[in-house]
Amino acid sequence: MQAPQNATQYFMGQGMLFVGLKDATTGEPMGLRHVGNCTDLKLSPKTNVIELKEAMTGTRGLAKRLTTEVSSSFSATLESLNKDNLAIALRGAITSKVSGTVTNEVATAFKGTLLKLAYAGISAVTVKSGDGVTTYVAGTDYIVNDDSISIPLTGAIATADTGTGVGVKVNYSYKAQDIIDALVSGELEYWFRFEGLNTADTNKSVVVDVFKVAVDVLKELALIQDKQAEIVLDGSCLLDSTRATGSKYFRVTQVN
Asked: How far apart are CA 90 and CA 75, in angstroms?
């Protein structure tokens, strides 16, 4: 006679990942923001142990295991390279600029090179000499790109450049833009929440709250490649001392 069997509960997950800064006083998240499409999400619990061996039988048999550390790593792969996700990954600070204009931005132009400006997304560009007397001709003396100015090898600016550059003043308009300064913030602590669906079990809900995560700096920001760029957030689940009961690391909720 065959022993009774329990039904196998399979799991194949999809769902949405949310993140919020953790309030150090209340222990709760300070609002949870959807990170966009997340293609990979993993928690990797682990323990470190010391193995004690007996010294009486001559075989040095394993007598006891002592757990010396409990921890879990965290990893999420995000496809949305929005300003907020980049700021987390790069420990960056965001400066949002509304569209505007710049008058008489001082720069030095060198023939055959790119002249960068303070802002990107430029239009309505005029370039004058440093003393403001000469107005240079667009398309001949300089070329306006989407985000910068190119100085040709010919034209008035090129002719005036004897190797030390030519002082110019640039007027232009620029589009609204977000600027992320990388590696200017310290390590922050985040609450991550996964609101998932078990596609192997009629899309039943599975919710995972990870209470306190310290995220490592992004290992790689791929700027040129032949596939969709991704942000891989790796980090550690920290012990959350604000939680009086239950796990101090993360909690899984399965809806029946």
From this structure: 15
Residue 76 and residue 41 in contact, taking contact as beta carbons nearer than 8 Å: yes
Distance CA 100, CA 117 (A): 14
pLDDT in tens, 7-23: 999 999 999 999 999 99
Query: 88 and 188 share a domain?
Result: yes
List the chain residues with pLDDT less than 50.
Answer: none
Number of domains in the chain: 2
Q: What is the pLDDT of residues 27-54, one digit of tens each?
A: 999 999 999 999 999 999 999 999 999 9
Neighbouring C-alpha atoms within 13 Å toward the C-beta of 56? 4
- Domain shared by 118 and 20, yes or no: no
Assess contact for 22 and 29: CB atoms under 8 A.
yes
142 in Cβ contact with 115 (< 8 Å): yes
Last residue of a domain, one of 159, 175, 191: 175
Q: 72 with 58, same domain?
A: yes
Q: Is residue 160 part of a domain?
A: yes
Domain extent, residue 69, equals 13-93+182-254
Domain termination site, one of 141, 175, 209: 175
How big is the CA angle at 229 (ends 226 and 231), to the nearest 5 degrees?
A: 150
The DSSP letter of residue 239 is P
CA 227 to chain centroid: 18
Task: Tell me the whole-structure pTM to 2 decimals.
Answer: 0.90
First to last CA, the chain: 31
